[in-house]
Amino acid sequence: MSRIRSHIRGSRLATAGAAVAAAGLLAAALTPTADADEPPSRADAVKNAASVLSDVAGSLGLTAAQGTRVRDVVVDTDGAQHVRYDRTYRQLPVLGGDFVVHLKKDGSYRSASRAVGRPISLRTVSPKVSGPRAADLAASALRAVNVGETLERLTSRPELVVDALHGAPKLAWRTDAVAQDSLGNPVARTVLTDAGTGAQIDAWDSIETASGDGKSLYAGTVPLETTASGSTYQLKDATRGGTYTGDATNKTDLCILTVCLNRAPATVFTDADNHWGTGTAADRSSAAVDAQYGTDATWDYYRSVHGRNGIAGDGKGSFNRVHYGNAYNNAFWDDSCFCMTYGDGDGTQLGPLVSLDVAGHEMSHGVTSKTAALTYSGESGGLNEATSDIFGSLVEFHAGNSSDPGDYLIGEKVVRSGLGRGALRFMDKPSKDGVSVDCWSTSTAQLDVHYSSGIGNHFAYLLAEGSGAKSINGVSYNSPTCNGSSVTGIGRAKLGKIWYRALTVYMTSSTKYAGARTATLSAAKDLYGAGSAEERAVAAAWSAVNVG
What we know:
Elements: E1 2-4, E2 12-15, H1 18-30, H2 42-60, E3 66-75, E4 81-89, E5 92-95, E6 99-103, E7 109-114, H3 131-144, E8 152-163, E9 170-180, E10 186-194, E11 200-205, E12 214-215, E13 221-222, E14 227-229, E15 232-234, E16 236-237, E17 243-247, E18 254-256, E19 259-262, E20 267-268, E21 270-271, H4 284-306, E22 319-324, E23 331-334, E24 339-343, H5 356-370, H6 378-399, E25 409-410, E26 425-426, H7 449-465, E27 468-472, E28 475-479, H8 492-506, H9 513-528, H10 533-543
Parallel strand pairs: 1-23, 5-8, 17-22, 22-24
Antiparallel strand pairs: 2-3, 3-4, 4-5, 4-6, 6-7, 8-9, 9-10, 10-11, 12-13, 14-15, 15-21, 16-17, 17-20, 18-19, 23-24, 25-26, 27-28
Helix pairs in contact: 1-2, 4-5, 4-6, 5-6, 6-7, 6-8, 7-8, 7-10, 8-9, 9-10
């Protein structure tokens, strides 16, 4: 599956040093005395965090040259608060600068989680390598991974950043290179270039791919909330933040960061009698039914299970575009438009990519970008993909649709005979796809993120279901362990709660598998208590995939 990455910018909260102290004093002065029995609000949490930043600036490596921006806030039912920040250095974004401040109910400091711990101090923020040169290098990198393909409308935009993710902090250009292939479909790559030497630091796909009442293509006849408009109905759901589905009319768009040179349309589907689709691809609205249903089911899962109101947690609905591109074997979440986009597939390997678990997977990339923002390369990228596979599967189970019952297969509805296997990925034994790995090793960070995601997927299956052979909803599984142990599962509900808390409270942009183990253990301890059976199960499941 895929999503086009974008960069999250919050409002500036404070700078370190004197500015942080001033913000803290002001916040303390303005914070009203709350009822002792009432949990703090999100606004209270932000003020409380601001008031303690001056005291903990040293431990967080904050200096007068650095600024902070609030990205996300979590307030627990017991009043504990967790405020997530992005960091700047001399007004430049810091990759790996994110951190989370954990507070007690009374607003006092408890601890912090940091993406990286190295101090940030650069001699200069003036690059030796120019922006146009970085753009050329990124364009060359995009061509290098599309050998033999004629790329059209290739454009690249560099952004000057401080890279703290790859060793000692250094000045770097982060450049998104975007083009269209011979069929008009988008290809993109993000390249991180040393602004002092021109050497490539890292590179990753900017489109995160996976070679992965209405009558739908895959989910049978499903209920839909629509909007009356004159004598017709629109496929728009006011009960879920105004989510809607439109027709991209087989066009594509070309965007770099938040600037789009052209956008494929999203013409809202309409219907005369409020009965949508025929369940066949011959009716263009059938795929739209699947897309809207997938959005509904994902929204409902996050709201009812995790109390999250929409992808960004702000009640805002996203929108869908179906019939994107020409035989496009992909689907992606795009932060810049806050939308889901689905291709129709080539008909040989993949059909229309509008299945329920694909929708849950892609929209969960949006949740990740608004919370931990796991970097899409190395082990962090594998965790990013695993997060979407985990929640995509949990959305499918939660929906309880008899035409598409829950399973631990990813994209099984969209695969065709030409792919040569029955699903895109297999969570019980990821290596069944021929390329993913079941167990962590020192080479994990060098793998494509869709293959290294197998470790997180394998852990999640073992934590929920345990090892060995079993059948669930008519699908047979036989999950091995890497250390020869026998693992007993604690159920899907607890898996979801533990992973969600770890993602939204403890993980950061640089979290690797060892860090994910720590984050999920902390989450299990928070939810079920220190030394609980759930905490022990988390430890056992990670050990079973060679992590820790």
